[in-house]
Design a protein that fits this description.
The complex is a heterodimer.
Chain A: E1 4-10, H1 38-53, E2 58-65, H2 73-87, E3 89-99, H3 106-115, E4 119-125, H4 129-134, H5 141-153, E5 157-164, H6 171-183, E6 188-193, H7 201-207, H8 216-232, E7 236-239, E8 242-244, H9 252-258, E9 262-266, E10 271-274, E11 277-281, H10 285-293, E12 299-304, H11 307-318, E13 325-326, H12 327-333, H13 337-346, H14 352-356, E14 359-360, H15 364-368, H16 370-377
Helix pairs in contact in A: 1-2, 1-10, 2-3, 6-8, 11-12
Chain B: H1 22-27, E1 34-42, E2 45-53, H2 61-69, E3 73-79, H3 86-97, E4 101-107, H4 116-127, E5 135-136, H5 145-155, E6 168-177, E7 181-190, E8 198-201, E9 207-209, E10 212-216, E11 220-222, E12 231-235, E13 249-252, E14 271-277, H6 283-296, E15 301-307, E16 311-318, H7 321-335, E17 339-341, E18 348-352, E19 357-360, E20 371-386, H8 390-399, E21 403-409, E22 414-422, H9 423-437, E23 443-453, E24 456-463, E25 466-467, E26 473-476, H10 477-494, E27 502-508, E28 511-518, H11 534-549, E29 551-554, E30 557-560, H12 561-568
Helix pairs in contact in B: 2-3, 6-7, 10-12
The chains are: A alpha/beta, B alpha+beta.
């Protein structure tokens, strides 16, 4: 039986970052929808979810966005309270919120700690003001260090998110960012290559020639540098874009996604996966609220996965993990899997010893080509 | 004429009435000849005028020559706003060689840009006589058309032939009609043919029954038979046009003729190209489509061919570039196929040191051993243009290995240039270049003029050491390097990075003349894959499965079909999307 997890999507931002295509809205984009209505709507959705799922205890909770910390601390506490009241939360469960370094301080974080949050994921992105400017990030780099220190003092597990490969970012600037992140002494780091998503401001700037397109070779160099320096400093990769210091500091919540567990995504645009069924909520907060006011689930795009699709998803997700993918999954999807596996071992994209014992585990080179490895394994 | 003689009423009349194919009407050209019979009264006597509307383009010269051989006179129609074009000249000379009575006519005199005085002068210079003898008409308004019809009756000789001799009819065209089978167009020389009679093709001795005999006026109209001088059609129920060979003589079984009429030489394909379906599973459909097209286009030849890069297809022979273009367009349009055509090439005669002789219609089949000499087809090209463009035309011909034969003024500002050029240089993009360098004012015509030795080499393109047959080309030694650089650079832009480095080389035999390389792909991974990304990523994977079908393997290198198409197109291609994600 799969474990059960809760995600709450807070779709508000003060400004929209140029690279971001997430479901989030600035005050003007909300078209009159009050942010203060978020909790009352969440209450309605939690009630419907409880009727739908039945009595299941939450193993982890994660608040993401958007910018959850744009809401007052007591509202985040209230959101967590709603989930606890409806489902119950397991003892010692990981309870995370994403935090914008500019929107929190000691008082704010104390309220969260008091409410039961025990992990903070800071959107640091870069330590270099020029790079932050290209990304449209407004925060002051010093706020990150100050708040991470406060959070650790209050007993939170901490993590920072980094982005590499922003247009114009040099290798030196990236090294500076990595060093700054290390000096924070968090026990978890996530790092994402910048992807130019279609229909974003960044995509338009690149198309117009105002900014250079990210250089994929340089992004690869940056990944290799990061991985080397993190291992020197006691971090291990446990997913393509995630490193942790000790086994118990991995993000349990994210692992639930990659292991195909059940979760309910609350809030506008949030995605859910329960017992082989995937759906997402309508995106705009106003429409979302309308559905709830009618007493109906604000869900769209529902699909029930076939056995093959389930296997494909397992391959797609588990290949990204340090533990790797059981090759039995591949055997069922690709008749010629043995040939694919041996070619991938020969190309040093997956580990030979693990392959012999029936698992596909990506090498460093393989991690950078994970999508290629997946296609190859699936015989595409 | 059709309206004035009453064979087409005003209500049914439309522009290009006799051009039946969509493609003819769209392009405003004639591809197939059409026969029509019109009554005309002159000095109280009614005459039957048989007319054949012919194509003008150089590729279809053989159609024109067949039609001319079936006639006694020719109406030389020249656009009064544009003057004589190179192909008009070619057709005029053909008519003169056939000793036909030529009636010069300037058409479209209703156009504001018409300059009938100027072009009448030009015409008179060409065929002799006075500019005043040149008739001026407008097909649109009907002005002058009655005078033209009168003139035809007056000047074109009446048919001579023996009505009592055994029947002899010349086949000048034969087309396939999906409802009625093969329709054979003939010109009666001697005797007569009647329906229900057993007829015989003199070359094949094949006997058929004439199920229907009639005339086109211009819709098919059954008659009681055809007599001396008449032009009409025969239907025998045969399904294959090859049973009714153009140039053959039709006689009757009951009273057979002994001597066939002088036939025509069969047109030889001049230009070859490999035609491949984009979707490999369309191969059988392509075969069927070619078989069907062949029924109405005897000049089309093809045989199966395989290419490492493009899969299964056909090497097809055409009369020229327009013919190639029209056939591929008809295949795509009338049979719903998506096709790739390789760069057009000509036929080379290669002699080896050993004395062996090889005919090469596909560059990738050019022999590898010691080559003693290579002969390539030459053409005599005639270019007509305003005198201001003489310089650019000469420059262009020079760069295409041309030798000038002569140059003369046609009128005070129009010049005719004649060049000897390798056909291979013309089939590439000569016509486009000529048109663009002369703002569209130049016209081109050419005729075969035998073979000539050329310093020619085959340039191969290699991907990771594997030859990509579709890109092999036979070029002049001086141009080999430029071709090599062009293709390797193009391919480097078009082929997505692989997970290993891919060298792209151009080679003459074992000698590498140009080299590029596609660096190994180092990064192909989606950075973030959380709850909301999962469905999206799985759907992307499904899409890639579809995309995979359009990938071709050259050795270990995956090449998207689009890259081949873009590399085969001669123009400036758009830069390919190098991302494979």
């Amino acid at each position: 039986m799969a474990t059960f997890h809760g995600y709450v999507h807070v779709p508000f931002c003060r400004v929209r970052c140029g690279y971001c295509d997430f479901n989030t809205y600035t005050a003007t984009e909300l078209q009159g929808f009050p942010q203060s209505a978020f909790i009352s709507n969440l209450r309605a959705e939690v009630k419907l979810a409880r009727e739908n799922v039945g009595p299941r205890q939450l193993e982890t909770v994660f608040l993401g966005g958007g910018t959850p910390t744009l809401l007052p601390a007591n509202e985040l506490a209230e959101a967590l309270g709603l989930l606890r009241e409806a489902f119950g939360i397991a003892d010692g469960a990981e309870v995370t919120t994403e935090a914008n370094p500019d929107t929190v301080d000691r008082d704010y974080l104390s309220v969260l700690k008091e409410a039961g949050f025990n992990r903070l994921s800071f959107g640091m992105q870069s330590a270099v003001p020029e790079v932050l400017a290209v990304l449209d990030r407004t925060h002051n780099p010093e706020a990150v260090a100050r708040n991470v220190a406060i959070a650790k003092g209050l007993g939170f597990q901490t993590s920072v998110d980094l982005i590499y490969g922003a247009p114009g970012e040099t290798m030196e600037q990236w090294k500076q960012t990595v060093q700054a992140a290390l000096s924070l002494d968090t026990n978890h780091i996530s790092a994402y290559a910048l992807i130019v998503e279609p229909a974003t401001k960044l995509a338009r700037q690149i198309a117009a020639g105002a900014l250079p397109a990210p250089d994929e070779d340089l992004q690869a160099d940056k990944y290799e540098y990061l991985d080397a320096i993190l291992s020197e400093n006691g971090f291990d990769w446990y997913e393509l874009s995630n490193w942790s210091k000790a086994p118990n500091s991995v993000s349990e919540h994210n692992i639930a996604y990659w292991k195909g567990q059940d979760w309910w995504g609350f809030g506008p645009g949030a995605h859910s996966h329960i017992e082989g069924r995937r759906w997402s909520n309508v995106k705009h907060p106003t429409t979302y609220a309308k559905h709830l006011a009618l007493g109906e689930l604000p869900s769209i795009d529902g699909e029930t996965l076939s056995e093959n699709e389930k296997l494909e998803e397992r391959a797609m997700l588990e290949l990204r993990l340090r533990a790797g993918l059981d090759l039995q999954v591949i055997r069922k999807l690709n008749m010629g899997f043995a040939k694919s596996v041996s070619e991938l071992v020969a190309a040093e994209l997956i580990e030979g010893s693990a392959a012999i014992s029936g698992r596909a585990i990506l090498t460093l080179k393989g991690r950078l080509l994970a999508d290629f490895v997946l296609r190859k394994l699936l015989g595409l | 004429m059709l309206q004035l003689t009453g064979v087409v009423d005003d209500r049914s009349m439309r522009a290009q009435y006799l051009d039946r194919m969509d493609i003819e009407r769209e392009r405003g050209i004639t591809i197939k000849s059409q026969a029509v019979r019109m009554p005309w009264e002159f000095e109280n006597q009614t005459y039957a005028l048989n007319m054949i509307d012919t194509p003008g383009h150089v590729d279809f010269t053989y159609e024109v020559s067949r039609s001319l051989a079936a006639c006694e006179g020719a109406v030389l129609l020249v656009d009064a706003a544009q003057g004589i074009e190179a192909q008009t000249l070619a057709n005029l000379y053909l008519a003169m060689e056939n000793d036909l009575q030529i009636i010069p006519v300037l058409n479209k005199i209703d156009l504001p840009a018409a300059q009938p005085e100027k072009y009448a002068e030009e015409l008179a210079n060409l065929i002799g006589g006075n500019p005043e003898d040149c008739l001026r008409v407008s097909g649109k308004t009907g002005v002058g058309v009655d005078a033209l019809l009168d003139k035809i009756v007056q000047t074109v000789p009446h048919p001579v032939g023996d009505p009592n001799a055994p029947a002899r009819a010349m086949i000048f065209d034969s087309v396939y009609d999906s409802y009625r089978g093969v329709v054979t167009y003939v010109r009666m020389i001697d005797g007569q043919l009647t329906p229900r009679e057993k007829i015989q093709m003199m070359s094949t001795r094949a006997v058929h029954e004439a199920l229907e005999i009639g005339v086109s006026s211009p819709e098919p109209e059954p008659t009681k038979g055809l007599g001396v001088g008449e032009v009409g059609y025969l239907i025998t129920g045969v399904k294959d046009v090859r049973q009714s060979k153009v140039g053959d003589t039709v006689t009757t079984v009951a009273k057979p003729a002994t001597e066939p009429l002088k036939g025509y030489s069969e047109p030889l394909p001049m230009v070859f190209s490999g035609i491949y379906p984009i979707d490999g599973s369309d191969y059988p459909n392509l075969r069927e489509a070619l078989d069907k097209l062949k029924l109405s286009d005897a000049a089309l030849v093809y045989e199966p061919e395989t290419s490492v890069a493009l899969g299964f297809g056909f090497r097809c022979g055409f009369l020229g570039l327009l013919h190639l273009e029209i056939v591929t367009e008809r295949l795509e349009r009338e049979f719903g196929l998506d096709l790739i055509a390789t760069a057009p090439s000509v036929v080379y005669e290669v002699t080896m040191d050993t004395g062996a002789e090889i005919t090469v219609t596909n560059p990738s089949e050019f022999p590898t051993g010691k080559v003693k000499k290579v002969l390539e087809p030459m053409v005599k090209a005639t270019i007509l243009a305003p005198k201001d463009y003489v310089g650019v035309i000469m420059e262009l011909c020079q760069s295409r290995r041309g030798n000038m034969i002569d140059m003369q003024y046609l009128g005070e500002d129009r010049v005719q240039l004649r060049y000897s050029l390798p056909l291979a240089e013309i089939v590439f993009d000569f016509f486009d270049q000529l048109k663009s360098k002369t703002q569209g004012y130049a016209s081109l015509d050419y005729e075969e003029s035998g073979l000539a030795e050329g310093d020619l080499v085959k340039v191969d393109i290699l991907l990771q050491g594997d030859q990509v047959d579709a890109f092999s080309a036979i070029v002049h030694r001086d141009k080999a390097y430029a071709y090599g650089v062009l293709m390797t650079t193009k391919l480097r832009e078009l082929i997505p990075r692989q997970q290993f480095e891919v060298p792209i080389q151009a080679a003459i035999g074992a000698r590498i003349i140009a080299r590029e390389s596609i660096r190994a792909m180092r990064k192909d991974v989606l950075a973030k894959c959380y709850g909301g990304d999962i469905s999206r990523k799985r759907k992307l994977l499904e899409k890639q499965k579809e995309g995979k079908k359009r990938m071709k393997m050259v050795g270990r290198v995956e090449v998207p079909q689009e890259a081949f198409i873009a590399a085969l197109s001669t123009g400036d291609e758009k830069k390919g999307d190098k991302k494979s994600k």
